[in-house]
Amino acid sequence: MKIGISSYSLFSALKTGEMTILDAIQWVADNGGEHIEIVPNLGFQLEDSALVDAIRERAKLAGIEISNYAIASSFITEDEEAYQEEIDRVKQEVDIANRLGVYLMRHDVAMRPMEETSIKQFEADLPKLVYACQQVADYAAQYSITTSVENHGYHVQASDRVQTLIHQANRPNFKTTLDTGNFLCVDEQPVAAVKKNIGFASMVHIKDFYYRPADTDPGEGWLNTTSGAYLRGAITGHGDINIREVLKVIKDAGYDGYISIEFEGMEECKQASKISMDNVRRYWNEL
User: Contact at 8 Å (CB) between 256 and 34?
Assistant: First the structure.
């Protein structure tokens, strides 16, 4: 098991220019991380192949691994032409993943407004999502890259929907980036959901949330779950998710891959990411 962070955790520092992605890589190494996930479009872009090479080399010099390449995408499009264009674009992102030297890549599959995320709509969208994921996974296989869907974005977030997509895609190199906190967004209890899906995980995100029921109004900084409850990102170990029990499920399942902190709270991002990494490492070692 190797603990690191998603570059998303340092988004606020990347966005303001306090850090570059190369600075972030060095920061992770300096603060005890063993790997970093690269998430473009959040404070930096990877349109320049020279930057891709610089990221790979900086990680090598810093002595940490690049664990995963995670991109935004959606195969819910206006027409067939746009649908094929999106599949082709994601394949080009696979080329970038290969240039980075990674063997794991997460791509989104479907973004819809919360009011359009019914099970009926999911079933209607599923054939196109399956085909697109198959096409990308088959393309990635030439590089020995495993692609994955993360449980986020409401439409493909519940554990059963993620499993359905994986099973129907039916590719050995298509799995899930399992985010332990995101199940709460669709009102699914994290420990139970992690038990259901850890066997399909190529990558694990550890995320914590503060939780407030729907009959409260905590004010600015919170997001809603599908039932109207409230969530706010937390430093791992500070929130309301039973992180120790979640980690026990992961460890007992025999998972021994990358564990990535994904912090999205209101606290200062560097301190929050460091505390989160330290807490997860300590909890894991105590199990």
Answer: no
> What are the residues whose beta carbons fall under 8 Å from the beta carbon of 215, sequence distance 6 or more?
none
Residue percentage of the chain with pLDDT more than 90: 97
Indicate whether 278 pLDDT > 80. Answer: yes
144, two tokens = 């020995």
Q: What share of the chain is helix, strand, coil (3-state, %, to 5)?
A: 45, 20, 35
H or E element in which residue 122 lies:
helix 119-141
**Cα–Cα distance measured from residue 64 to residue 66, given in angstroms and rounded to the nearest whole number:** 7
Instruction: For the chain, count helices (H), then strands (E).
Output: 9, 11
Which two tokens mark 208? 């914590």
Strands 208-212 and 230-234, sheet pairing: antiparallel
Ramachandran class of 185: left when φ > 0, alpha when ψ lies in -120 to 50, beta otherwise: alpha
Quick check: 48 pLDDT over 90? no
**What does DSSP assign to residue 156?**
B
pLDDT digits (tens, 9 = 90+) for 168-186: 999 999 999 999 999 999 9
> What dihedral do alpha carbons 116, 122, 126, 132 form, nearest 10°?
40
Among residues 95, 93, 203, which one has the least CA distance to residue 151? 203
Residue 64 in this model has a pLDDT that exceeds 80: yes
How confident is the model over 69-110, as pLDDT tens digits?
Answer: 999 999 999 999 999 999 999 999 999 999 999 999 999 999
Q: How far apart are CA 5 and CA 262, in angstroms?
A: 6
CA distance 37 to 39: 6
- Burial class, 264, CB count within 10 angstroms (exposed 0-12 / middle 13-18 / buried 19+): buried
Distance in angstroms (rounded) separating the CA atoms of residues 185 and 154: 7
